[in-house]
Each structure stands twice: as structure tokens, then as C-alpha cells.
Amino acid sequence: MRSSASRSIGGSDPAARPDPGPALPGFEHFERHWDREHGWSVKILPGEYYITRAEELISTVLGSCISACVRDPQHGVGGMNHFMLPEDAAGGSDEWLDPAVGLATRYGSYAMESLINDLLKLGAVRERLEIKLFGGGRILAGMSDVGERNIRFIRDYMRIEGYPVAAEDLGGTRPRKVLYFPTSGRARLRRLRPVENRIISRHEQLYLESLGRHTPGGEVELFT
User: Fold this and answer.
1) Residue-wise over 8-19: b if at least 16 C-beta within 10 A, else e?
2) Which of 35, 98, 193, 219 is the most buried (most CB within 10 A)?
3) Model's pTM, two decimal places?
4) Active-site residue numbers?
5) Residue ranges of the domains in the chain?
6) CA-CA distance, 55 to 76, in Å (whole number)?
7) Is 26 exposed, middle or buried (0-12, 13-18, 19+ CB in 10 A)?
8) What is d(CA 130, CA 184) in angstroms, rounded to the nearest whole number?
9) Which long-range contacts (CB under 8 A, 24 or more apart) does 126-131 make?
10) Which pLDDT tens digit goes with each residue over 83-116?
């Protein structure tokens, strides 16, 4: 728990709040909110990612989905994504792991490389990237374990691309709220209650169904 002095930074007076500066190009449409405990914050939803250089936090709520929190600690830029793999025609086989034929892996790679590419274009260095992974819970009842598929993908992706994992909290049966502070690399995690689990499960079910009607963006080439 922060002290009362820390919680009141900026106070309730908008004029006393520090100026976060403009959002980076391409991210101006995200709403920034003032949090009395943490300062400026941005919330991302499934299928989104956000990058910043500012002293602000990025938050999201995860059930079966995965979030990668990525930053270059020397260059002072970082971000977070939030993604879920769509169901794949490969069914119970491991064909979905093959990027040449598996829609699921192509979608996951697009989600990861969109975030990483934008960081590299802003001056981050691939070898310095610090990556933390969260999510992949089993919360969609009566279905294949979507969370486990997401975990298998992200671990496979990290291994193939040669990225070390700085920290992770994956799996389990409860959703998570994740707060990420890109400038410091600090991540805070809170397990959510069963009633929140049902709400998140319903939202993710609708999102998963929507993924079956859309394909990811075009091929992504890693920027170096």
C-alpha cells in the first residue's frame, strides 16, 4: 500500500496533474485516465497494444488471453499487447503451431511482432528487450483449453525468436488484472474474484467468436 502522500500525487485538481505529453504517433486514439494512486494510465482491450515513453501505466484484464509487456530499459520505451489465438481448423493436432499453415500461430506472431516492430522503429534494440508474460488462464468452460494453447504459442514464439523471459505468470483458473509501468519495468498483478471471472469469460467467448470471422493483418517482417 502506498502512503497517503503517494496516493495524492496530482490530487483531484486537474491543474496540479503532471503533463504526460502527447501520445506517440499511432496511439493518439487511446484514452488516458488519471489514477490517483498511479498517475496517468491507459487501458488496452483484446486485440490492442500500446507503446509509450511517458511516465504512465498500461493496464489490462486477462482471462484466457496473453499479454506481453516489452521494453528497452536503456532507451526508455515500452509497451503491452493483449491477444488470443483464434480456433484453428487443425483441431486437436499440433499443425496450428506451424506458421506456414496454422492461422493461430500466424495471428499470434502478428500480435507479437506488431508490438516489437514498433518498439524497434522507435530505437529499441532487439538484444536489450525485457519481456514479461501474463495470462493464459483456463476460464472458458466447456471448451478446449484456449488459455493453454495461448501459453504453448507464446513459449514457442519466445524460444524460436531467442527472447529470454524476464518474468511470467501464466495458466491457472482465475483471471488477472495486470498493471505495467514501462519506464521502470515494474508489473503488478491482482487475481480477480469468481463473479468477475464469469464476466470476463463471456467477453472472451464473444471475442473468440469474432476472431473466427477475421484474419490477422498482412505478413509482418521484423524490423531491424
Assistant:
1) eebeeeeeeeee
2) 35
3) 0.80
4) 65
5) 34-211
6) 10
7) exposed
8) 11
9) 126/224, 128/72, 128/73, 128/74, 128/75, 129/70, 129/71, 129/72, 129/163, 130/70, 130/71, 130/72, 130/73, 130/166, 130/185, 131/68, 131/69, 131/70, 131/158, 131/163, 131/164, 131/165, 131/166
10) 988 765 444 555 545 554 455 667 789 999 999 9
pLDDT of residue 208: 72
State the Cα–Cα distance between residues 85 and 208, nearest whole angstrom. 8
* Cα separation, 67 vs 161, whole angstroms: 17
Report residue 150 as a C-alpha cell. Answer: 495461448
3-state helix, strand, coil in the chain (%, to 5): 30, 25, 45
Task: Give me the residue label for grid cell 506458421.
Answer: 99
